[in-house]
Amino acid sequence: MNDLSRRHLLAGAAAVGAATALTPLGALTARAAVPPAATQAPGFYRYKVGAYECTSINDGVFLRPIDNFVSNVPKEQAQAEAEAAYMPKGMVAVPFNPQLVNTGSKLVLIDCGLGVGMFEQSKGRVGRTMQNLAAAGVDPKSVDVVLISHLHPDHTNGIRAADGSMAFPNAEIMVPAKEWEFWMSDENAAKAQSNEMMKGYFANVKKIYTGIESKVTKYDWGKEVAPGITAVAAPGHTPGHTTFAIASGGSTVLIQSDVTNIPELFLRNPDWHVAYDADPAVAQETRHKFYDMAAAEKATVVGFHFAFPSIGHVEKDGTKYRLIPVAWNPVI
Questions:
Q1: What value, to the nearest 5°, has the Cα angle with vertex 61 and ends 55 and 64?
Q2: Three-state SS for 233?
Q3: 255 φ, ψ (degrees, to nearest 5)
Q4: Domain ranges of the chain
């Protein structure tokens, strides 16, 4: 009987390394008839909600230092949790996943990613929505509605192409009324000047939306904003932060937007505050309400910052929650 142990694994790795070192370079090259691809596969995944065909579109994954990512616990505690989730030491990996909903009568893109050219230092890690839409066979001109959950850059900057033109030229842009009111207020912007993060957010909203204000439709919570898609209040992360319920044919999926950031930290620790929350206490309250409801209903939940394809179920785990990702389905 084989006794597999760490000693055996390390010995095996050493043996492979030694064999590789002793193998002539020409022999290794001869076996490599097909060169490495050096690129990742397109990131899109289709799923059904009743009669609606939905597509999770990956905008990339941003690596950032743990630093102050969690604002109400010591950095070391947050780092330990991140390392327990096998994230790179001292870093957190934050995915971005817009959702495309084909209702049959409307093609609706919920959030649109960071846009091309954002975070150049990411070396292609983010801003991948347009290339993944193209890989999924979607022409940006065919998008009828760009439905924005809130006005943070990773959810809204993708409405602009690299040259500043409209990335989805025929789409109606829909923004929560409360969100628009907050970020477009000169008074609120003036109050935010002492906070570098908030100051940057206000400046970004102005940059993205100046000149296209007339193209923006403001929507209210509790209303159907597109066929089968209802806007649901979820404040805290931002004043007008919105989630969506997609319903068709007796099936419902909850698009949670940023009720939580990465689940490895904030589902497991729902009372932790992500640095980006405008009102952390309200965001914490919203998080518990949303996940208590989702767990009780056994709802399918789609998270913008969940690992791609970003679909799963949330279960209660004592005072915490845990994410059960859906199994990859080769058919729609």
A1: 150
A2: strand
A3: -90, 105
A4: 44-325
Which residues does 137 contact at the CB level (< 8 Å), separation at least 6? Answer: none
71-107 per-position pLDDT tens digit: 999 999 999 999 999 999 999 999 999 999 999 999 9
Residue 84 near residue 123 (C-beta atoms within 8 A): no
> Cα separation of 54 and 263, whole Å?
22
The tens digit of pLDDT for each residue in 257-315 reads 999 999 999 999 999 999 999 999 999 999 999 999 999 999 999 999 999 999 999 99
Give CATH for domain 44-325.
3.60.15.10
What are the start-end ranges of the H helices in the chain? 6-22, 25-31, 75-84, 129-135, 153-156, 177-183, 186-191, 196-209, 263-266, 280-297
What number of other Cβ atoms are within 10 A of residue 191's Cβ?
13
Residue owning tokens 């898609």: 229
Both tokens assigned to 123: 């070396």
Count of H helices and E strands in the chain? 10, 16
